[in-house]
Amino acid sequence: MANDWRELISVLELRDCTPVGARAVDRSPVTGAASTAATSCYRGHNLSLPYRRLFGGQLLAQFVAAAGIASPDKSIRSIHANFLREGLVDEDVTYEVDHRHRGRSFDTLQISATQPDRLIAVATIAMHVPDHGPDVQTIDPIPELPGSDRQITVGLLPWEIRSFDDLDDPAAATPHHEMWMRTPAAEDDSAYPSVAAYATDLTVIGTALRPLDGYSQGGNGTAFHSAVTSHTMWFHRPVRTDDWLLIRQDSPIIAGGRCYGRGDIITESGSLIASFAQEAVVRMPS
Known about the structure:
It is a single chain. By secondary structure, the protein is mainly beta. The protein starts with a helix and ends with a strand. The longest helix has 15 residues, at 56-70. A hairpin with a 3-residue loop joins strand 6 and strand 7 (106-115). It has four helices and 15 strands.
């Protein structure tokens, strides 16, 4: 597990591939002052997976990492990503970042993820400078952290997971899922939002399938075929994934060959730090 965690952190270490001389000077519409490049380019390698298709969570994590490099003086506020076609694990991904707006409090970035001959995903990311104001939340109470006897393994998540739910159980159940997670500490705190985004991509489809008797998350590619089409995440408060976090999600609908799910990330003390939503294609055999 430790090696898998180190590999995940390594894919967040993007390389600057902006061509020499290609950086445009961006001037603030408010002050007229010159700032950093309006466009930039970064490249990342992929997780070593036993199949050819890239994991969407990796793309989400690298989108967030690219935004952090391109807008280093602000924190991520939200990401909306659309997955256009499958990416391949044996080809590096290039992230072309276009600074659509740069302000004192907010930046808006448009990022394209490409492999040598195709565009595979796009994301719009909003960055901001945290501000002061009311701090009120209204959420359902959270359960206590399960004991170590409820530790489970979830593929592609190389850290501690505890849950009373089993998305690999094919018995019909309510489309609700809760799991607690805690990662090892990262050397750089800027990695935590990327890791949180990565974690939210994996279990929404499995949650949506729970009402269908005989289907489970582990049946993808055999009992059914699925692919995430869009994923949105909002960051409400600073994120640390090396403390226990509850990922609580539900799916109100699966219909028309698609499913939709939504969820929250909550600290052990009950603080809502992020929310997310996802749509995916789900096709059953005829």
